[in-house]
Amino acid sequence: MVSVNAFAWGVESSGGGCDDRVGVVDTAWGTGFVVADGAGGMSGGALAAQKVVEGAERWLLALERAPTDLECAHWLTQTDQSMALERGVGLTTAVLLVVGGGRLTGASVGDSEATLWSAGKGRELTSMQHRKPLLGSGEAWVVPIASVKAQGMLLMCSDGLSKYAPYAEIERIMAHFEAEEDAERARSASVRPTRQGAGASQAVVGALIDAARMPNGGLQDDVGVILASLGTSATSL
Prior knowledge:
The protein has helices at about 45-60, 70-85, 160, 165-185, 200-210, and strands spanning about 1-10, 20-25, 30-35, 95-100, 105-110, 115-120, 120-125, 145-150, 150-155, 225-230. The chain is built from 5 helices and 10 strands, in the order E-E-E-H-H-E-E-E-E-E-E-H-H-H-E. Residues about 190-195 and about 235 have low confidence and may be disordered. The strands form 2 sheets. It has a 5-stranded antiparallel β-sheet with strand order 1-10-9-6-7. It has a 5-stranded antiparallel β-sheet with strand order 2-3-4-5-8, covered by helices on one side. It is an alpha+beta fold. Helices cover about 30% and strands about 30% of the residues. It has a single domain (about 1-235), classed as 4-Layer Sandwich (Phosphatase 2c, domain 1).
């Protein structure tokens, strides 16, 4: 059985308000993940990001099966058009991913990223996305993310991490996390795995955010991160 063995998340502001939002929702058919980074420098960015996360959670909970990549893209496109008509709602990125039936798929728009890590190497799932127009413009160009096997370490983040943390440091942290998760899975093969924050995942989220810090400890941009361990659950080994 392929499952989401553990997940953790974190959001930290670079100062003042925070425009980043993340969400994780368990459903009858699997798990959904969403990262949204409201556009700074204009009003309504945080509200736009919040509406995407909350709307995605409601939509996923109402489904009887895991949505396809095209269905995820369609939902984001509809959300873009409806948000464009709402007063006070700004613009946001969005990465929406779902795990169900042993597969990982979704859709995205903007410059937030999702990468699936395995054997120390990262495969960016959002490499084909369009940075602009953003969600909320009514003209967002949403790109489906083709289905892949749900196996490895999933990292989703706003550009506060991907833009400012050295890639080599992210690679090092993820390789260390993967090794610890493999060891933990081997130790607890006969025990039902814990979910949120299991193993080293919550500490790794903190380490990733720290990798984006300036020498004075501050952040140059808000950071939102989701980290999930995907693969064969201990109960099925």
